[in-house]
Amino acid sequence: MASSSKSPATEVEVGDLTVRVSNPDRVYFPELGLTKLDLVNYYLAVGDGIVRALRERPCMLHRFPDGLAGDKVHQKRVPHGAPPWLETVRVKFPRYNRHADELCVTKPADVIWAVQMSTVEFHPWNSRRADTEKPDEWRIDLDPMPDCPYDRVRQVAAVARTVLDDLGIAGYPKTSGGRGLHIYVRIEPNWGFGDVRRAALAFAREVERRAPDDVTTTWWRKDRDPSKLFVDYNQNARDHTIASAYSVRGVPTATVSTPVTWAEIPDADPRDFTIQTVPARFAELGDLHATIDDKAHSLEQLLEWAERDEKAGLEGPADAESAS
């Protein structure tokens, strides 16, 4: 654990590297009195977990240079002057004919460097450096509408798990750090973003068929029932990212997007998983997503469902650039 002194900076040993942390006493979470150094120590405590969640992925950073009391900065590009040991991955944005060299985490020091740069949240792509155009992670985002109670989120998670079981697919759940739940699935990197998104929509529609009173897949937000849960398949679109496992969220209560077991979901309150509670939980349970890389699943069955739905006249995924 790093400690601060009266100097304007402190040095943190991370593995065999040293990261200089400036302004360690700057308050990042005013309601809790938590500082930049508290954030550093949190990420050190869950180092194996956050590195596993980010490893080899292009990663967008949500920075708060003045803490939560100031503005949030969405940063894709690693700035000039980064240490030579920091790795990046180049991603292209064909629509704008541009590219960005984004952070590519391979070790805990990369995470602490990002925190030094005032990062609170880590938002990785669902593809890796070996081929950024072929996702290896399918993300199921259970996104409650404004009037949807959390009990409904729990119920839909159980339905989603049943559909995954029927497909012979292992899903790894986590809290979103907000009001929702995420389920991550490791997939074979054999399909582009478009097909992964088609598969995700086919899955969402199957969950909706089994729980029509609880779930919507309606694309336009204004057309959704505000009491239902939206299964957000668009989180699998290219360059769409969500907070990783073990990412702190930039909210006053410093909640954490936390891996949970399926058995915990019926009773767990996502507000209980915070920067102050997750380190002890991690020390006791380890990383509940530690085995996510053990098996990569095929999307063939889901793509057959997608083709069936499309032949039946159901619309395919809406344009990813359209805001939901």
Explain how this protein is built.
- Helix content is 26%, strand content 21%.
- The protein has 7 helices and 14 strands.
- Strands 5, 6, 7, 8 and 9 form a 5-stranded antiparallel β-sheet that branches.
- α5 crosses α7.
Essential attributes:
alpha+beta; 14 strands; five-stranded antiparallel sheet; globular; 324 residues; disordered C terminus; five-stranded mixed sheet
Topology:
Elements: E1 9-14, E2 17-22, E3 27-29, E4 34-35, H1 36-45, H2 47-54, E5 58-63, E6 73-75, E7 88-93, E8 98-104, H3 108-116, E9 119-124, E10 137-144, H4 150-167, E11 172-175, E12 181-186, H5 193-210, E13 215-216, E14 229-231, H6 278-285, H7 300-311
Parallel strand pairs: 13-14
Antiparallel strand pairs: 1-2, 3-4, 5-6, 5-8, 5-9, 7-8, 10-12, 10-14, 11-12
Helix pairs in contact: 1-3, 4-5, 5-7
InterPro entries: LigD_pol_dom, NHEJ_LigD
EC number: 6.5.1.1
Protein name: Non-homologous end-joining DNA ligase
Number-wise, the strands total 14
Compute the separation of the termini in Å.
42 Å
> Biggest β-sheet: count, sense, barrel?
5 strands, antiparallel
| Number of DSSP helical runs | 7
Radius of gyration: 20 Å
InterPro entries: LigD_pol_dom, NHEJ_LigD
Keywords: Ligase
Domain DNA ligase D polymerase: 35-289
Pfam families: LigD_Prim-Pol
Task: Describe the structure in brief.
The protein has 324 residues and is of the alpha+beta class.
